[in-house]
Design goal:
It is a single chain. This protein has helices spanning 3-14, 45-57, 108-117, 133-138, 200-217, 237-243, 272-290; strands spanning 17-23, 35-41, 61-65, 71-73, 78-84, 92-96, 99-103, 120-121, 142-143, 146-147, 152-158, 164-168, 187-194, 196-197, 224-227, 250-251, 254-256, 263-266, 299-301. It is of the alpha+beta class and 302 residues long. Bound molecules: flavin-adenine dinucleotide (FAD). Flavin-adenine dinucleotide binds at residues 29, 64-71, 85, 104, 129-132, 134-136, 138-139, 141-143, 181, 187-188, 218, 220, 224-226, 299.
């Protein structure tokens, strides 16, 4: 039996949906990426561990995606399974005295709204980050002075040996856009966060203020993966890029946004190669002119 047929049977047995020859463009906010053999939308711990276990033991290539908002996907065919931890695995499991437990596929914005509705403060920074809770913890997402490490308590994850374990925040090695989950093969299942009691109207006000700032400063009308480069120590990527005269610089349909130089945008039909060439040219010029090394923030999926 081909690996595709075996995965289809597994999906059927777990009741989770899948799509064959699915374009990754549909699953990345950059709207870039080729087709994969099968995209699987997991809906439970069992389906995730069953699908991942099958891929591991049969040497089938696989990748995990949340909302695809921190990803640059190659246009070339992905001969394997892309496992999507999204809507079908996105329940809020409990809200109790400021502690919220949710599945990894929940969108951060939905979690923020739920916290606000219950009158819990501390998560407002995350409103407007277009990722899932799992994806956000994976890279310790943050904005406007807050980050996941401020609110997370613990997480359950699927380990590389197939067991489900719990990890406390102290052991997650969280720092600027970094966590112990990165490149570890461990997959986040559930996240526990702890918030403080606040006032609904104040929380709402803060969320609205932050989302307005995003709308004002960021090129949200174009596909992108958010900030293209990490903040280098002692500087801001956008300011360095601008200083080098690269605002608006393009390769094909990939462009350094004229609205925010920290964002590379897809003006319509940008390819993976356009994005990567643009990124390399920006890095080279910034290094030559300013001495700063820019590091890519999104991950490459290939
Ligand atoms: C317009 C825009 C604005 C943005 N603003 C911000 C911002 O202010 N701050 C910020 O930090 N980021 C920002 N981002 C980037 C992005 O939204 C965040 O990094 C987000 O946390 C990524 O979550 P995701 O679910 O989309 O992850 P994906 O992009 O799907 O995946 C990113 C990585 O996480 C891994 N991953 C995803 N889910 C899991 C899981 N359950 N278990 C293990 N690994 C997993 C994937 O394998 C991949 O390696 C922005 C992006 C856009 C497009």
């Amino acid at each position: 039996m081909s690996y595709t047929n075996a995965l289809i049977s597994l999906c059927d047995s777990f009741g989770c949906s899948y799509k064959l020859d699915e374009s990754l463009k549909e699953h990345t906010t950059f709207r870039i990426g080729g087709k994969c053999k099968i995209a699987v939308f997991v809906n439970s711990d069992e389906s995730l561990s069953g699908i991942v276990g099958f891929c591991r033991s049969n040497s089938v290539k696989y990748a995990v995606l949340g909302n695809g908002s921190n990803i640059i996907a190659d246009d070339r065919f992905f001969d394997g399974a892309v496992i999507i931890i999204g809507n079908d695995y996105s329940k809020i499991l409990s809200i109790d005295d400021g502690t919220i437990v949710c599945q990894a596929g929940l969108m951060l914005s939905r979690l923020c709204i739920a916290a606000k509705n219950e009158g819990y403060t501390g998560l407002e920074f995350a409103y407007g980050i277009p990722g899932t809770v799992g994806g956000a913890l994976y890279m310790n997402a943050g904005a406007y002075g807050g980050e996941m490490s401020d609110v997370v308590v613990s997480a359950d994850y699927l380990d590389t040996d197939g067991s489900i374990r719990t990890i406390l925040k102290e052991n997650m090695d969280l720092s600027y856009r970094h966590s112990a989950f990165m490149n570890s093969g461990r997959i986040i299942l559930r996240v526990r966060i702890k918030l403080r009691k606040g006032t609904v109207s104040e929380i709402e006000q803060k969320m609205e203020t932050l989302i307005s700032k995003r709308r004002e400063k960021q090129p949200l009308n174009y596909p992108s993966a958010g900030s293209t480069f990490k903040r280098p120590e002692g500087a801001f990527a956008a300011a360095l890029i601008e200083e080098c005269g690269l605002k608006g610089f393009s390769v094909g349909d990939a462009q350094v946004s004229e609205k925010h130089s920290g964002f590379v945008i897809n003006k319509g039909n940008a390819t993976f190669d356009d994005i990567m060439q643009l990124v390399e040219e920006v890095r080279k010029k910034v290094k030559t002119d300013t001495g700063y090394e820019l590091e890519l923030e999104p991950e490459i999926l290939r």
